[in-house]
Structures are given as structure tokens and as C-alpha cells.
């Protein structure tokens, strides 16, 4: 339960009437440690001075002189560890953008209030407050070298994990995305964001992709023999598509494994712009002609854009998780999600929603008729040996919950 006496509040607004109103509302709610301030400079002096040290600031964004956004930057400079509630007469999108900025600065934001402030909404946000947590020094990410990665590849330290993709309409497990992990002898399980770029810059990405794809198709063959027919998705880099023999390698591998091209999904993420697009376009077009499925990954972010949809014959679109999670309650995200979904349908593409984190995300996909879902609400990525057991548990969950 919220200990109201523990909350030291600073209300910052250039309008005297608004300060009086906030003070009255907070007092009626039982918050007695409230300091009022009508400009940013004075507020900063109070925060840095020997007096009160607020652990919650009610911050007006629209102030002459130092506005709320600039005030936040100064809070970062003095290592403010408390929380913020943003207040403004601006529209919802502006307030959401301001919230994102505060979060990017690693300052806790409890939410935002539109003017005129409503007491019940203010109370709801106040009740989200929790005492500041002692912040440990940030963990410095380890930097790996190409030589270390080569040793890891040669000694079978890289292993595939698999995250399910399920039909939103029926709950049926239709496929998996292959996600490589480094089982480091000293550092434990290392995620790909720490070594994929190393593979690209050190010329190892082709060998890495081929190794991941080989393991994935061999695993798919085992599942196929156990009666589980799945689409197998593997991420490929644009660097892979500079090798003209990539098509033959993938085609030969499907022949050897017995997994037909129609059940192999190649998810393309363009992490950087290609200077010469002729080879990638040739290879992707040939792969599509051979009936491999092509998916545009993380659509709406980076270089995954309308230009790629125009130029490359994709038949699957993955809506980035940043446009899926919370889209049921965020109008901006919902507009982006529904626009992506509509675009894919008009182009005759299947749609996968990434980042399905909770029931509200799932219900939105179901209400809008999205094809496939992927995310922690369904399952985290898992080792191959855990997959068949998870499938049985998922079937049970579908029959009782979904």
C-alpha cells in the first residue's frame, strides 16, 4: 500500500492557479509534503539545495523560459533518481513522445495528465509511485572478437533456440523462428545482439547463417518424423545475399534434409543500407522462384520499409513488436499496427505480429484478424529438446484459456 507520508512532491507549473489546484487536490488525497514552484530554475535550485529532495515531480511541459523537456535534461545532469508525472494541454501524441523521452533518460515516468487535471486520474497515477530503488552501476556489455566467435563456431558453442509462431484464429502451432545463442564457457548464454554484428564485420556471417540454417532444418526433419509439420524461419543478413552461391546452398540443404522450400521462411533484416542492390535482388527473386518463403522482419523500423516491399517479392510481413505491445490501449501504436496489417492484406501477404506480451495484445490480434502471433505471451525461445513438451502444454492452454 502507498505510504503517502513517504512521497515528497514538487509541483512545477508556471500558472499560479494550476499550482493551487494541484496543492488542494494532493492535500485532499492525504499528501502533505508538497512544494510548489513556478519556474524551472528555482525548482532545480531547490532540488540541488540542502532543503527538500523530491522523489516525485509533477511537471508542466509548457513553461516560458525553461520548458519541461529542457528541465528533464537538467534532471539527468544532476542524476535525479525520483519519478515524474507529466502535465500538459498538448495532444495525446505529444505527451506520449515526452514520456518516451523521459524513459530514454532512465527516469521513471508514472504517466501523464491532460489539463484540466482530473482528481481521479491524478490519484490513479500517484498510486503507481514506489520508493526509488538503489541503482547499481550499469553493466558494461562485453565486446567479443571475430577470433573468439570463430573458435565458438568451430567448437559447437553456438546453439539454436526456437520461438513458436501460432495461428491467432485457432491457436495451432504453425512454425518456429530460429534464434541463435552462444553457450559461452565463461559468460553463460550470450544473446545474438552481442555477436551478430561481430560476424558481419569479421566476415563470418555466411558461415554463421549456414550453420544456423543447417541445424534448424535438421531439427525440423526430426520434428517432422515425430509428426509435427512446421514452417522453419531463419534470419538472414543482407550480407548473406551478396554471395551468389547462397541460393544453391539453401536449395541443396532442403533437398538433403527433406524439408520442402515451402516450409522454409527466410526472414530478411536490413541492418544497413546496401550500396549495390543487384545481387540481393537477384538472390531473393531466385529464392522466391524456388518457392522459399520470404519475410520482411521488423517492419516499420530501420530500413524495413515500403521501398523494400516495392522492390522485393516478400510473402510475409512481420509487424515489429514496438507497434504491437500496448497497441490495444495506445491510439498511435494501434494506428501503426492496423496500417501495417491493412497494407499486408492489400499486397496479399501473411502477417506475423511480434512482441505479443499479454492477453490484451492477443485479444487485439484476434479482433483484427491477424494471421500469426509470436511473443512471450505464447512462449519464450527455448532449446529444441523442450519444444515437444511445450506443444502439448500449449494445446491444453488453448483449449481452456484461449
Short description:
The protein has 402 residues and is of the alpha/beta class.
Number of strands: 15
Distance between the termini: 33 Å
Tell me the series of helices and strands, N- to C-terminal.
EHEHEHEHEHHEEEHHEHEHEHEHEHEEH
CATH level 3 topology of the largest domain: TIM Barrel
CATH superfamily of the largest domain: EAL domain
**Helix content, binned percent:** 25-40%
Shape: elongated
Mean pLDDT: 91
Tally of separate helices: 14
- What's the alpha carbon Rg, rounded to whole Å? 26 Å
Proportion of strand residues: 15-25%
How does the helix and strand content classify structurally?
Answer: alpha/beta
CATH architecture assignment of the largest domain: Alpha-Beta Barrel
What is the top-level CATH class of the largest domain?
Alpha Beta
Low-pLDDT stretches are none
Number of domains: 2
The biggest sheet, with number of strands, parallel, antiparallel or mixed sense and barrel status, is: 8 strands, mixed, barrel
- Largest beta sheet: strand ordering: 6-7-9-10-11-12-13-14
